[in-house]
Amino acid sequence: MTYRIEETDGVLTMTINRSEIRNAINHSVMDGFEKFIAAVQDSRAHCAVITGAGGEAFCSGGDLSVFHELKTEEEAFPMLSRMADLLYRIKMLPVPVIAVVNGSAVGGGCEIATACDFRLVKREAKCGFIQGTLAITTGWGGGSYLLETLQHDRAMQMLTSARMYSAEELKGNGWATELYEQDTDITGFLDRFRKIDSNVHRAYKQLAVQRWETNGLKSRVDLEVRHCAKLWALDAHHAAVDRFLNKSR
Ligand SMILES: CC[C@@H](C(=O)O)C(=O)SCCNC(=O)CCNC(=O)[C@H](O)C(C)(C)COP(=O)(O)OP(=O)(O)OC[C@H]1O[C@@H](n2cnc3c(N)ncnc32)[C@H](O)[C@@H]1OP(=O)(O)O
């Protein structure tokens, strides 16, 4: 199975389960996100968690071994817009969503984590919006979420530098909520959530959702998807993806 969904003590967790390919996202994982969203909406959970299996990576973004077959704007758009829609629905979930970034988050992996309300980042993890090195922009809404989350210049720096950041840098620029060393530190964070009535969490989340629904976030995400789909079709992107795939062979 490419994902696992479990509920423990009022916490619903989705684990991307493709560690051999660093938890890259394909359509099967997207099906998992559909199920996860439905499960959270139907539950009385305190909060939801997204993480990756294996410990090397939280998520390495889109599965380039599959998505390199998408050559044109028209071919790329449905994949980008499907995942953007899923991340928007995750952002709008009625409870706080926590990304447990237990390894590298690269490209779309950073977009998934940025759609969440909190990012707990393992001290050894490195994360980056490296899309620029592939001659594309973020295409799943993560650029809009980053600009919504960080101070403007820090968000722009992360997007335009297209480089990997250390966990310390991520704490410094505000992307990481907390750094952690051991899994027990995550348990401590979740226990603090459980101590407060879940209606309180839901009420604060509703305030955030209300702000995003009225400040045009969805239309910015739609624009982001269209920009990425256009750049996706250019030779510079296909050449960069070929270089990545050939290097790892
Ligand atoms: C499509 C949407 C777009 C967006 O909107 O944001 C994107 O997400 S673009 C994709 C961005 N992702 C990448 O460019 C992939 C980057 N991957 C890496 O930098 C590294 O793999 C890693 C995540 C830092 C992990 O490094 P390491 O632990 O050293 O593992 P390997 O590099 O040896 O990887 C193991 C294995 O997995 C394959 N792999 C990794 N990521 C992907 C991926 N995104 N798509 C396809 N395959 C991936 C890698 O090729 C290795 O394969 P083998 O050599 O066959 O074992």
Automatic annotation (TrEMBL):
Q: What class of enzyme is it?
A: lyase
Kindly list the GO CC terms recorded for this protein.
Answer: cytosol
PROSITE patterns in alphabetical order: ENOYL_COA_HYDRATASE
EC number(s)? 4.1.1.94
**A biological-process GO annotation:** fatty acid beta-oxidation
Q: Which domain of life is it from?
A: Bacteria
Q: Which reaction does it catalyse?
A: (S)-methylmalonyl-CoA + H(+) = propanoyl-CoA + CO2; (2S)-ethylmalonyl-CoA + H(+) = butanoyl-CoA + CO2; (2R)-ethylmalonyl-CoA + H(+) = butanoyl-CoA + CO2
Task: List the molecular function annotations (GO) for this entry.
Answer: methyl/ethyl malonyl-CoA decarboxylase activity
User: In which compartments does the protein localize?
Assistant: Cytoplasm, Cytosol
Looking up CDD domains in the UniProt record yields: crotonase-like (cd06558)
Q: Which InterPro entries does the UniProt entry name for this protein?
A: ClpP/crotonase-like_dom_sf (IPR029045), Enoyl-CoA_hyd/isom_CS (IPR018376), Enoyl-CoA_hydra/iso (IPR001753)
Keyword field:
Cytoplasm, Lyase
What does the function comment of this entry state? Decarboxylates ethylmalonyl-CoA, a potentially toxic metabolite, to form butyryl-CoA, suggesting it might be involved in metabolite proofreading. Acts preferentially on (S)-ethylmalonyl-CoA but also has some activity on the (R)-isomer. Also has methylmalonyl-CoA decarboxylase activity at lower level.
Family statement drawn from the similarity comment of this UniProt entry: Belongs to the enoyl-CoA hydratase/isomerase family.
This protein's name = Ethylmalonyl-CoA decarboxylase
What organism is this sequence from?
A: Planococcus lenghuensis
Taxonomic classification, please?
Answer: Bacteria, Bacillati, Bacillota, Bacilli, Bacillales
